[in-house]
Amino acid sequence: MKAMVLAAGLGLRMRPLTLLRAKPALPVLDRPLLQFTLERLAKAGVREVVVNLHHLPESVIEAIGPGRHHGLRIRYSREPEILGTGGGPRAVREFFGREPFLLVNGDVFFDFDLRALVARHKSSGAVATLALRTQPDAHSYSPVVTDKRGRILSIAGRPRARRGTRSMFASVHVLDPRLLERLPAGPSDSVRDLYLPLLAEEAHLAGVRCSGAWYDFGRPSLYRDAQLRMLRGRGQVLVGSGARVASAAAVRRSVLGARSRVAKGTRVERSVLWPDAVVEAGARVARSIVTTGGVVRAGERAEDVIVLPLEALGTGDRAGVERHGDMAWVGIE
Predict the structure, then answer these.
(1) In this predicted model, what pLDDT tens digit does every residue of 46-65 receive, in sequence order?
(2) Is there a cis peptide before residue 57, judged by omega within 30 degrees of 0?
(3) 316 and 297 in contact (C-beta within 8 Å)?
(4) What is the pLDDT of residues 180-204, one digit of tens each?
(5) Of 216, 237, 267, which closes a domain?
(6) Residue 153 to residue 69: CA distance in whole angstroms
(7) Chosen domain end from 216, 245, 272
(8) What 3-state class would DSSP assign to 168?
(9) Residues 258 and 157 reside in one and the same domain
């Protein structure tokens, strides 16, 4: 089976973190987010994957390479212009052949049984099957309404459905590649330009409620908090390979990336340190993110901020930034 991972987005809501790496390449529990996605795909029997690229493409390639350590063959599709969730797959239509393929967003963490999702798609006779989950916040996500058999009646209120079960789309779907031929060349959206017209034609679209973890890293605060929740069952502190933590340091419920350094007399709590981040002697870091190249100097108190090199910020990104020498402190939203 084949799959496509969408990794071309700008990640604007995750700035300033996405000034350093593309969102799918951000470290999650000290690993690039995309590595978790590729593991799920390989476990489902996928062997070939295409990944589209636009924003900071080399950070994505560095994060996952050719895919051999996951038993995958990875092909990259570079997009000088972002083509969207419909246009990206449309541009590589020939890659998929004739069999159904998996299409997943590269900027979410999920742990679904993809084999079961694909099996349900094949048995239902649907032209596309969307992974759904319980809708936690009616105001944050557009609803998908399904009938008792799982047939989709409405997406984002179109067409209007008076009855049915409301869920949210989890950014994972299985579809017949021939559907892509309905889309024009160039940018398009899979929901607006493909699924809504299909619903208007009363085509069979299926929705499957999936259990398992799912996190949308929509803002830096969600990215931080999701990792702290993911620590449950893994211990209260994750220490990456080569990280150095002084015996006199106090670290509570935090992620310390590979080769990060936490000096004596420091206190780090409810925070995420990227690989090679540094917290110097006597500093305190709370509810914060310290990126690669970020340094919290001796005696400083970094609370509810992102610490990153000032040089990573463009001129237009520096408004409201607190400067600490060559470091920038940006409030977490």
Answers:
(1) 999 999 999 999 999 999 98
(2) no
(3) no
(4) 999 999 999 999 999 999 999 999 9
(5) 216
(6) 41
(7) 216
(8) strand
(9) no
